[in-house]
Amino acid sequence: MSCSIDLLKHRYLKNIKENPELFVGIELEYPVASLEGDATDVEVIKDLFHYLVSTLDLTVAKVDDFGNLIQLVDPISQDAILFEVSYTTIEFAFGKAETIQEVENRFNNYMNV
């Protein structure tokens, strides 16, 4: 019995570090809606991404088949701002952080733009 347990431990636990570094991983998704209750204007969303690139130190990581920006990345923090499925949901996928307050500060920097 102990041989089988040892084999299972080796198979499934061998890649786990003894003293791993711990990081916070956070993704936030927000629906994009018109304040007037109308359908979401996709052009406003596309313009937002161009504005973010021109205002913040973000690089374009992905574009769609039509050349529209769909993922922006901060080269230092590795934070990504993206559209995962459609232009009606914007996602903030934050890079590694040691504390939730660090992520909060970075998020606030994006919101202050």
UniProtKB/TrEMBL annotation:
GO terms for molecular function: ATP binding; glutamate-cysteine ligase activity. The keyword Magnesium does not apply. One of its GO terms (biological process) is glutathione biosynthetic process. Keywords: ATP-binding, Ligase, Nucleotide-binding. It comes from the Bacteria. This is Gamma-glutamylcysteine synthetase.
